[in-house]
């Protein structure tokens, strides 16, 4: 295997490869661009016109996506995967990955679209570096731009794998993008209703990419869970240009965010069982959270909980209340 194929090892060790550009025996070019950043180019004549960014490790404690991207990079370097798309592969937050923590100073996935200018530290610098890497990659016109930012949720989920579609001016997810997600074994898509400063919001907004945050199924240890293995198989088919054209009728379940619960003080408390699953139903009229005299009571019929996390910084999201969407509400 080519040395660049060990990108995860190099990144965790803070090392550069001896040769920054390497070619596989079948002519695929692997180009190390910066810490944790690899550009993969198919041989001329085999490129089908798709530019795909895959990022993992923006949260250093989400190990499934990091392991997933490592497997893909090794397979590309061995020549087991023969791409027909250009790829930008990113281990997004090496410092947090080394310590296996969500972030060091600031949640990197809140620092894009200019937000990094308001804070100091390693993650602010990395956000600006990632913006530049992605900007360079997506600078070629006339190509299809896609981005999947890979995460794994901190708790079990009633929808094994789901996507978050960032809000952007002029419309949400297109039917063919949703059908593609369905083909990738994604069970549900949460449509954002307002702007955010995540990595996928940045690639969607600045570069018009078909961009989603993907929450892969959680698992234990090194073994990838079956749903992630299915995602891997389908994603490799996309990378190799073997993807089946998906019918627009094949769509994941759509949901939308009804309310964001923002932690305001150290007295914030979530009134939920610690082991509650993502998308578990919230009884109408029940108390969801309280904080310094403020109370969040569930008043949405058919509400579900997503990403409950009391241990976040003040001012940050501590939970989402989401509701299923009728296809006609899109
Ligand atoms: O499991 C959790 O509580 C957090 C999972 C996670 O990191 N989710 C992403 C979602 C990003 C988005 O809204 O597109 C995040 O919080 O950054
Ligand atoms: Zn995450």
From TrEMBL:
Pathway: Amino-acid degradation; L-arginine degradation via AST pathway; L-glutamate and succinate from L-arginine: step 5/5
Reactions listed under catalytic activity: N-succinyl-L-glutamate + H2O = L-glutamate + succinate
Domain Succinylglutamate desuccinylase/Aspartoacylase catalytic: 49-224
Any one GO molecular-function label of the UniProt entry: succinylglutamate desuccinylase activity
Domain of life of the native organism: Bacteria
Cofactor, free-text remark: Binds 1 zinc ion per subunit.
Alphabetically ordered keywords of this record: Arginine metabolism, Hydrolase, Metal-binding, Zinc
UniProt GO BP: L-arginine catabolic process to L-glutamate; L-arginine catabolic process to succinate
PANTHER family documented for this protein: ASPARTOACYLASE (PTHR15162), SUCCINYLGLUTAMATE DESUCCINYLASE (PTHR15162:SF7)
Name of this protein: Succinylglutamate desuccinylase
Organism field: Stutzerimonas kunmingensis
High-level lineage: Bacteria, Pseudomonadati, Pseudomonadota, Gammaproteobacteria, Pseudomonadales
Gene: astE
């Amino acid at each position: 295997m080519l040395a660049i194929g060990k990108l995860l090892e190099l990144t965790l060790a803070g090392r550069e490869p001896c040769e920054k550009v390497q070619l596989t025996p079948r002519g695929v070019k692997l180009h190390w661009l910066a810490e944790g950043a690899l550009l993969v180019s198919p041989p001329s004549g085999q490129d089908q016109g798709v530019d795909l960014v895959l990022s993992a490790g923006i949260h250093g404690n989400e190990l499934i996506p990091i392991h997933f991207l490592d497997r893909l990079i090794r397979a590309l370097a061995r020549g087991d995967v023969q791409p027909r798309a250009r790829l930008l592969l990113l281990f997004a937050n090496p410092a947090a990955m080394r310590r296996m923590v969500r972030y060091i100073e600031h949640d990197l996935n809140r620092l894009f679209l200019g937000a990094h200018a308001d804070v100091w530290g390693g993650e602010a610098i990395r956000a600006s570096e990632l913006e530049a890497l992605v900007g360079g990659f997506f600078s070629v016109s006339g190509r299809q731009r896609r981005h999947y930012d890979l995460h794994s949720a901190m708790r079990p989920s009633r929808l094994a794998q789901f996507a978050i579609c960032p809000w952007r001016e002029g419309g949400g997810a297109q039917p063919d993008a949703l059908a593609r997600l369905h083909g990738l074994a994604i069970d549900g898509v949460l449509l954002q209703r307002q702007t955010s400063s995540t990595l996928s919001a940045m690639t969607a907004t600045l570069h018009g990419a078909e961009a989603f945050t993907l929450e892969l199924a959680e698992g234990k240890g090194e073994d990838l869970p079956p749903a992630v293995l299915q995602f891997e198989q389908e994603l490799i088919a996309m990378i190799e240009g073997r993807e089946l054209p998906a019918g627009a009728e094949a769509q994941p379940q759509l949901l939308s965010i009804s309310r964001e619960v923002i932690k305001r003080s150290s007295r914030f408390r979530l009134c939920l069982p610690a082991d509650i699953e993502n998308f578990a139903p919230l009884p109408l009229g029940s108390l969801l959270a309280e904080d310094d005299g403020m109370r969040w009571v569930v008043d949405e019929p058919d509400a579900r909980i997503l990403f409950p996390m009391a241990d976040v910084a003040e001012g940050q999201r501590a939970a989402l209340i989401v509701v299923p969407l009728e296809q006609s509400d899109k």
